[in-house]
Amino acid sequence: MANYKKKLDFWQIWNMSFGMIGIQFGFALQGGFMSRIFQTLGADKDAIPMLWIAAPLTGLLIQPIVGYMSDRTWHPKFGRRKPFFFIGALLSSIALFFTPYSSALWMAAGALWILDASINISMEPFRALVADKLPDNQRSYGFVVQTLIIGTGTWVASNLPWLMTRMGVPNTAAEGVVPDSVKYAFAIGAFVLFASILYTILKTEEYPPEDLEEFEAEKAKTRGIIIGFKEVLKSIVTMPTVMKQLGVVQFFSWFAFFTMWSFATPAITEHVFGATDPSSAAYNNAADSVGNYLGTYGLVSMFAALLLALFTSKYLINRKLLHLVSLVAGGCGFILIYFITAPWMLHICFALVGISWASILSMPYAMLSSSVDPKKMGIYMGIFNMFIVIPQIIAAIGGVNFLYKLLFGEAVINTMLLAGTLLILAGLSNLLITDKKAAHD
């Protein structure tokens, strides 16, 4: 495959990554408003991380399996990764639409599980597709363009409930009922998710295996659940050193962002707006505002990715150094939330977080894709997801509650101090990466 990869222009890369805007609609609505839904349905603040646990557990199981299967898939008409795009898009859009109609906590937690499982089916092949289609010297550019699309999705989706409210849709409801503004936002997200992934499917062609006979023979030898499971385990044991080093960076990064997704709404509505009753107008107005401020990190990540796209299209970059600085900036943004004196300052805090988000969604994958066997790109991208979901699982089963109270005290705003500290540690962990090919584009 690598022998005949040609350079692609911006719009070709844009088309093959456009479906990520829909995937990010799903993740942004999930990340920005699931805790609000949980609180509306009666969840205690300290119970929220455990309600999130289904999401990372699902990713831990599904992404390596989907990666393994997509590596061994080829159809002359439907390609290698595109069948997984379609299946994931269909299931995700259905789950996203129905999630805010949950009437009990167990239903909301189950809906989150189904939603995250479905999104993961589509997301992992998108990462692999960039590595499939682009030569080595365009990898950073490709992942940065993908990040530009993701940032756009994060910003728009995070602002949807706020926008619905401004358009006259009610943002309050009876106790235990999710407001219509959130329901409308999730419905719009479901449509965008399916439509954007369908656009990528229709606009993108995939390269066939370099040697089709060898590909079919190899696939025949590795057919079966047991053999597939052994192959995944073997790939985990023999993963490249750079993946292990990046794993440390990913661990701290995603622990920090899981802390934000779980606690930003209760922490900021209480600390900044003084609103604590989920059924009150004050809380729901504050929660809309939190979504608006969270959208800032998506907007800034979009512009950061745009600048990076312009730069990486012409020049080589030091991926390791860029990632280090970006993560430290985001860590400072989280910490500043504790000290702000007016709500508008949250835009500054989340702008710094957006710089780190742009880097998290591009630089680790660019570094990894330069260090793994192209024939196993899908499975390695799936295994790499372990370093995203394991910290989230640890956070969900009590890690966040234990650490923020131990290190900073009982107030829920201290979760943002924890997130900032972890993100700075993630930045410094880039110093562990020694592979020059991975670190420099």
UniProtKB/TrEMBL annotation:
<keyword id="KW-0472">Membrane</keyword>
<dbReference type="InterPro" id="IPR011701">
    <property type="entry name" value="MFS"/>
</dbReference>
<feature type="transmembrane region" description="Helical">
    <location>
        <begin position="412"/>
        <end position="433"/>
    </location>
</feature>
<dbReference type="GO" id="GO:0016020">
    <property type="term" value="C:membrane"/>
</dbReference>
<feature type="transmembrane region" description="Helical">
    <location>
        <begin position="379"/>
        <end position="400"/>
    </location>
</feature>
<keyword id="KW-0813">Transport</keyword>
<feature type="transmembrane region" description="Helical">
    <location>
        <begin position="143"/>
        <end position="164"/>
    </location>
</feature>
<protein>
    <submittedName>
        <fullName>Maltose/moltooligosaccharide transporter</fullName>
    </submittedName>
</protein>
<keyword id="KW-1133">Transmembrane helix</keyword>
<feature type="transmembrane region" description="Helical">
    <location>
        <begin position="104"/>
        <end position="123"/>
    </location>
</feature>
<feature type="transmembrane region" description="Helical">
    <location>
        <begin position="82"/>
        <end position="98"/>
    </location>
</feature>
<feature type="transmembrane region" description="Helical">
    <location>
        <begin position="251"/>
        <end position="273"/>
    </location>
</feature>
<feature type="transmembrane region" description="Helical">
    <location>
        <begin position="50"/>
        <end position="70"/>
    </location>
</feature>
<feature type="domain" description="Major facilitator superfamily (MFS) profile">
    <location>
        <begin position="242"/>
        <end position="441"/>
    </location>
</feature>
<feature type="transmembrane region" description="Helical">
    <location>
        <begin position="345"/>
        <end position="367"/>
    </location>
</feature>
<feature type="transmembrane region" description="Helical">
    <location>
        <begin position="12"/>
        <end position="30"/>
    </location>
</feature>
<dbReference type="Pfam" id="PF07690">
    <property type="entry name" value="MFS_1"/>
</dbReference>
<feature type="transmembrane region" description="Helical">
    <location>
        <begin position="321"/>
        <end position="339"/>
    </location>
</feature>
<dbReference type="InterPro" id="IPR036259">
    <property type="entry name" value="MFS_trans_sf"/>
</dbReference>
<feature type="transmembrane region" description="Helical">
    <location>
        <begin position="184"/>
        <end position="202"/>
    </location>
</feature>
<keyword id="KW-0812">Transmembrane</keyword>
<dbReference type="InterPro" id="IPR020846">
    <property type="entry name" value="MFS_dom"/>
</dbReference>
<dbReference type="GO" id="GO:0022857">
    <property type="term" value="F:transmembrane transporter activity"/>
</dbReference>
<feature type="transmembrane region" description="Helical">
    <location>
        <begin position="293"/>
        <end position="312"/>
    </location>
</feature>
